[in-house]
Design brief:
By secondary structure, the protein is mainly β. The protein has 1 helix and 11 strands.
């Protein structure tokens, strides 16, 4: 199983960036993929997740949905086994390492992201300059 993030880098405040999470080694269509971020000195928080079995999308439990709603978009290309995180109107406080993670999609989670993820990427650094 492998998850590889890419697309990170330096972006100016107000700019846009798209991250990619390329997955391999598991049945992509049966899994949920989540995007996380961890800023310096802060705990990791989940931003958004997508269930590839039904394309449902949920905000992470720990992030303030209002802070990213309308600016962050998650979408999946099942043919390419890749999940994307599009981020618009970036803010300097969103400088962080961004990770993707995967676990089996399940109705047990209801209308929420998985409670835990078994597979993780190594992350990609995103720096938002003011």
């Amino acid at each position: 199983v492998q998850l590889v993030e890419s697309g990170g880098g330096l972006v100016q405040a107000g700019g846009s960036l798209r991250l990619s999470c390329a997955a391999s080694g598991f049945a992509f269509d049966d899994y949920a993929i989540g995007w996380f971020r961890q800023a310096p000195g802060k705990e990791r928080e989940e931003i958004l997740c997508i269930n590839n079995d039904d394309d449902s999308i949920y905000y992470g439990e720990s992030v303030n949905g209002d802070s990213v709603k309308g600016r962050f978009t998650i979408f999946s290309d099942n043919a390419k086994h890749t999940v994307y995180l599009k981020m618009d109107s970036r803010k300097p406080e969103e400088t962080a390492v961004y990770y993707c993670a995967a676990d089996l999609a399940s109705n047990d989670y209801g209308e929420e992201c998985p409670y835990q993820y078994g597979y993780w990427g190594r992350g990609t650094q995103v720096t938002v300059s003011s």
